[in-house]
Amino acid sequence: MAYKDQLLPREKVFRDPIHNYIFVQHHVILDLINTPEFQRLRRIKQLGPTSYTFHGAEHSRFGHCLGVYEITRQICDVFQRNFPSKSNDDGLWNDSERLVALCAALLHDLGHGPYSHTFEHIFHTNHEDITRQIITSPKTNVNRVLRTVSDDFPEKVASVINHTYPNPQVVQMISSQCDADRMDYLLRDAYYTGAQYGTFDLTRILRVMRPYNGGICFDISGMHAVEDYIISRLQMYMQVYFHPVSRSMEVILTHLLLRARELSNKLPTDSPSTPYMLMPFFNHHFNLNDYLKLDDGVLNTYFLQWCDNNDPILADLSHRFLDRKPFKSTKYNQQNKHLIKLMEDIIKKVGYNVKYYTDTNNSFDLPYDAYDPKKKNHTTQIELRQKDGSLVELSTISPLVKAVTGKQLGDERFFFPKELLSTDSNIEIFQPYYEKFQSFIKNDHIINQKGEQL
Known about the structure:
Blueprint: E1 7-16, E2 20-26, H1 27-33, H2 36-39, H3 61-82, H4 98-107, H5 116-123, H6 127-136, H7 141-146, H8 153-161, H9 168-174, H10 180-193, H11 202-208, E3 209-212, E4 215-219, H12 223-241, H13 244-264, H14 279-282, H15 288-292, H16 296-306, H17 312-322, E5 328-332, H18 339-349, H19 354-357, E6 359-362, E7 383-385, E8 391-393, H20 394-397, H21 399-404, E9 412-416, H22 431-438, E10 441-442, E11 445-446
Parallel strand pairs: 4-7
Antiparallel strand pairs: 1-2, 3-4, 5-9, 6-9, 7-8, 10-11
Helix pairs in contact: 1-4, 3-4, 3-10, 4-8, 4-9, 5-13, 6-8, 10-12, 13-17, 16-17, 18-22
């Protein structure tokens, strides 16, 4: 057995507002936490621009990854105590899988970039792919630490994140409809945003989890705790993750980076305003080292510089993002979507470039995995174990979960500069345009000129 696979002489603890203490017992886990690649996660907010809506949401990917590790550690403890394997095919827990599960849990979000989902959309990166690259590249500190366990250990950890690891129990601990990742981010995000409806009974859920040949299921006695988790997740998406102000700030951030990329093509290589750390991404020729240099602070520093840029659009969007000047928005649907073109024409007439100052944003397209057991992937189901040992899918016996199963809740919004809602008589030249624009909006919905919501 490799030295780094052994336990620490005395366990290390991290104080945590969600789990109270996070216990580190293995050398390899502590060494992974201390790598530069993992420490970088301290500098990336878990919820990106959401802190502009919920000011407490300043927590980082670092804390979340530690939390996912801790929940996974607790699951392993429950399984080893209550369901230890006695033979190779009994479907119970083999504790030799503990270390690969703990490492995968700790490292699952290692590849997130600054302002994660917006950055991915603009530069066509994939944080899961980059996570696997960091784990398997012999050039990273993370890889060197993992290889102290065994030469093939990095590939094993990467395969858990890639959902190809042969033991479905390990995969489902990290990625399933009720996994350590989702349970930690819901509790953590609820705590830091102050959104109490995101809480649920983690202790009870862990108590009723159990392994079987196909992965992980839950004792039917714990059905109500799992129901509560599903509803809490739905509420967090509707009230926090899909909040229109957060989406507005993401729209501004997206347009800001798009404008910077467009202008970067015209910059001389020796210009002091050239964003050197972003150029590999603007040119679509970045490597892993380029990626690992980026965090929220790097982007914010460029935004500060761009506030004084000669390009008025880049400077204004930088100010709007840093100084929290979100766009306003209004709901639309397929029946009144054609009116957006008329509203954009008005926005052009008052001097805004609609490419950068308007957008449509559909929360149905945002990353939300509604509970839908009809999908073919087995991880989309939550299985309850009945007294006779048979399994039943949650929504078939829970009217509450059945009511929200497969439902794609959300809205479609048209975003535009707040100035279009101005009633300031000092800008008399634009006042008729503002009044015309405002006539399209009533009760947060686009309406026709007869005042009817279509």
